[in-house]
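Q: Here's a chain of 190 amino acids. Please give me its 3D structure as tokens.
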Amino acid sequence: MTKAEFLRQFHHARTVWQEQDYPLRVKGRPAAVLIPLIDYGDSLSVLLTERAHHLKHHPGQISFPGGGVESQDAGVIDAALREAEEEVGLPGDHATIVGSLPDYRTISGYTITPVVGFIKPGFTVIRDPNEVESVFEVPLKHVLDRKNHLIHHTHRNNQTFPIYFIPWQDKMIWGATAAIIRNLSHHIHP
């Protein structure tokens, strides 16, 4: 999939199926993630991080660059770009934001806004070892293909919730990151 093909499918007015998120009883803490699509001209890949193993919450989990919206952020786009620069050294001028997906609520109490942006290749990754164990890319075509998505159902408070998994080489993308990718797949491939 190229940038032009992605944009033709991403920008549309149809209603898109959204995966079930966690029904928070109170408003979740605002957060933003950047879905960084690296544009190689003839193909796109998505940049992902493996969270540092010493972290208290979600150690070693695969995620997008992102985090909580802070008081100094002008909004979710600013928060996503700030977090991407802090976590992986992505300069803001390497990103072209093209839109966002609907918010996704998590069991940990966040309301995440996924921000989609094209990234110029060739920036030097400078990972923050306090937050990020490793940084890697996955072909966008692989993660958008729902044949590569695995679903496990869990039960909480007499309700059933899906948990999504997307294997890639020796990594397992799962949880909110996989659900956000699945929502992007519904947006691109109805």
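Q: Can you summarize the key feature?
A: The helical segments are 3-10, 76-88, 140-144, 175-188.
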